[in-house]
Amino acid sequence: MAKGKQGISILDSLYAWVPGVVGDYKYEADITIKPGSKIRLANLTYEPPRNGPTLWEIGIPDRSAAEFYVPDPYPSLMNKLYKNNHSNKFRQYGLWARYEELYPNHDLIYTIGVNNYREDWFYAHVTRNIGKETYVGTTWQIRFQLNNLISQGNYTLQLALASATSSELQVRFNNRSVVRPHFSTGLIGGDNAIARHGIHGLYWFFSVKVPSSLLHEGSNTIYLTQSRGGAPFRGVMYDYIRLEGP
């Protein structure tokens, strides 16, 4: 911010996003706003991130996890205000704990072409209580087929998060036990959307390069590990996931 003779001038930037499209638009130059000024910009075109054809996708790029599976609330904790309001079903208390009931023996496994994200993709990637209030990270799997692996070039995993709270999302391809993940977000997030009965918080977008050497012709598995434990509300909400070919 700079103060001139006629008052205060503000140096600003222009950002935008479009429902149904991943990523953020940022105008290439800073804009100086002065008192009484009128600024007219030319037609602006946003080219969303894409490196190749869509092989499969999960969710809707709308910066919300509302399209995923939101479980029924505990009867004893039900807020009657939202009892018959499906669009606000996520506002019920304690829904995150339903994850352990749905997946008591293993974490979520989602198979492309078989499962439906509206019914089979839990709305929040949360920790697991292994007893005595000890919470550990969890690993979800996405299984898919590649009938014609292109050995030259890179595939791309477009990964959009609707929320994150004290989390680290690690991505591994076809090898769950490799110590160093093929991609990690690092420690991110602090919006507490899960604890606050929300369905989105601060948006995060990552475009992950996937060398073809990490993939197989035939069956493949992507492992999504939220590695940070220690508390029930550490987790992420996915917005949209897309795998692109070279």
TrEMBL record:
CDD domains listed in its UniProt record: RGL4_C
Lineage of producing organism: Eukaryota, Viridiplantae, Streptophyta, Embryophyta, Tracheophyta
Any single Pfam family the record assigns to this protein: CBM-like
Classification via InterPro entries: Galactose-bd-like_sf (IPR008979), Polysacch_Lyase_4 (IPR051850), RG-lyase_III (IPR029411)
Residue ranges constituting the Rhamnogalacturonan lyase domain according to the UniProt record: 54-243
Annotated SUPFAM superfamilies: Galactose-binding domain-like
Name assigned to this protein: Rhamnogalacturonan lyase domain-containing protein
Gene3D superfamilies: Galactose-binding domain-like
